[in-house]
Design brief:
Number of strands: 7
CATH architecture of the largest domain: 3-Layer(aba) Sandwich
Oligomer: single chain
CATH topology of the largest domain: Rossmann fold
Shape: globular
Order of helices and strands: EHEEEHEHEHHHHE
Helix content: 25-40%
Length: 223
């Protein structure tokens, strides 16, 4: 493609959206719109759905994001279970990208998707360490997985519900909880919720549209 990709980033956590936007800023990508899990308003090429603390798998209605546009939906996640990827692609996703991928690799994948390919890039299979962008609690050492579990606790989910939402075992959830509690210095669930809500885990219902990019540039006339 000769022009920058027009992208909308969807997630309920401002720090997550800002982190992804910053990570992609150096690539040939224009982040036109950011916001919550609501239908995208702008004329964009791709809706990048960040799965942090969000619905995944069969309960995800991808059509909700692009009701009135031809944008393609791409899942951006560190949850790389094959059955989850299959569900997302069967549900209408045009791509599924791991958060361990570098910016240039993501750009190349998005350009292939715009050319009509269905692209799945899982990268490194270690999904609880590293990762691009940002997430709540990163500054105190929480891994993406620990932060996601804490976000779901703050939303009032039980361990079983978290396991179902994050596609991990209940024992894994308990392990993430123990390590997260140790890092943030709490011992009980109520303390964890209070800490989470005071440290960036409060969801946001706002939407941001870059006024400089809201209008799609007109194609240059042919000579």
């Amino acid at each position: 493609m000769t022009r920058p990709l027009r992208l909308a980033i969807v997630d309920d956590y401002p720090v997550v959206v800002a982190g992804v936007a910053s990570f992609l800023a150096e690539e040939r990508i224009h982040v036109v719109e950011t916001g919550t899990a609501l239908p995208v308003l702008s004329d964009v090429d791709i809706v990048l759905y960040d799965t942090f603390g969000q619905v995944q798998g069969r309960d995800l209605n991808l059509a909700d994001f692009v009701r009135h546009s031809g944008a393609k939906v791409v899942i951006y996640s560190w949850n790389l279970k094959p059955d989850l990827i299959d569900e997302a692609m069967a549900g209408g996703a045009s791509g599924y990208l791991s958060k361990v991928l570098t910016g240039p690799v993501i750009l190349g994948a998005l350009e292939r998707i715009m050319a009509g390919e269905a692209v799945i890039l899982v990268g490194d299979h270690e999904t609880s360490v590293g990762g691009a962008g940002d997430w709540p609690g990163r500054s105190v050492g929480l891994s993406p997985r620990e932060a996601e579990v804490l976000a779901l606790i703050a939303r009032g989910l039980s361990n079983r519900e978290i396991a179902e939402r994050a596609f991990v075992t209940t024992n894994s959830v308990k392990s993430y909880i123990r390590s997260a509690y140790r890092k943030i210095g709490v011992e009980r669930r109520t303390q964890a919720v209070i800490w989470a809500l005071a440290n960036g885990f409060l969801t946001d219902s706002s939407r941001t549209i870059d006024p400089a990019l809201h209008q799609r540039p007109q194609a240059s006339p042919k000579a």
